[in-house]
Amino acid sequence: MASDARTAKVELVADRRHYDEVVLRAIGGARVSVWVSTANLKDVHIEAPIGTRARAKGQYMSMTERFEELVGRGVEVRILHGAPPSRRFRASLTRRRGLKSKKFELRHCPRVHLKMIAVDGSYLYVGSANFTGAGIGAKEDGRRNFELGIVTEDDVFLDAAQLRFDRIWSGRECGACRLRSSCPAPLDQK
């Protein structure tokens, strides 16, 4: 494994910075693609955009609304999840007509436990946070999980993480999977 060793610039992200750095700055600023991998997928809420009445009233919006905005700008959003999405996430999705697009896709693999977010092929988050309010959402400090991760723009790390994501996404891991017989919908049959 020593041949895989390398030095790269990474930044540590803890607790609230998951929301500020990864969700608001990186995902919010996406121009090409957002790839999310998470064990648990819930209806994350974020602060309403600055300059809106909703923001002035201290209101929040579902991350599905932000995804809908991104897709409307031509950004591809892929979400790979291990557990079925929460009931609230599914309900929020049904209200977002703009997500009924080839630019927005969800895929379920029960073996997915990796937590990563790749944005535009140039920004990578890898860490402990699931795509949940307590993991990366706008929860107040006393209610959020203790989370830790790293972010980097290192092209070698990005390539390796995106390759791993894509192997799962495209079903190339399904053939050797020992849980295939109990899998509800193997990804290699999509």
Q: What features would you describe in this structure?
A:
By secondary structure, the chain is an alpha+beta fold. It contains six helices and nine strands. Strands 1-9-8-7-2-5-6 form a seven-stranded mixed β-sheet, with helices on both faces. It has a two-stranded antiparallel ribbon with strand order 3-4. The chain is globular and about 50 Å long. The model has no long low-confidence stretch (mean pLDDT 93).
User: What order do the helices and strands follow?
Assistant: EHEEHEHEHEEEHEH
Share of helical residues: 25-40%
- Approximate shape: globular
Strand content: 15-25%
Poorly predicted runs = none
Mean pLDDT: 93
What is the terminal separation in angstroms? Answer: 34 Å
Structural class by SSE content: alpha+beta
How many DSSP H or I helices? 6
> How many beta-strand runs?
9
Strand order of the largest sheet: 1-9-8-7-2-5-6
What's the structural blueprint in terms of helices and strands?
Blueprint: E1 10-14, H1 17-27, E2 33-38, E3 45-47, H2 53-56, E4 60-62, H3 63-72, E5 76-81, H4 87-94, E6 104-108, E7 116-119, E8 123-127, H5 133-136, E9 148-152, H6 155-169
Parallel strand pairs: 2-5, 5-6
Antiparallel strand pairs: 1-9, 2-7, 3-4, 7-8, 8-9
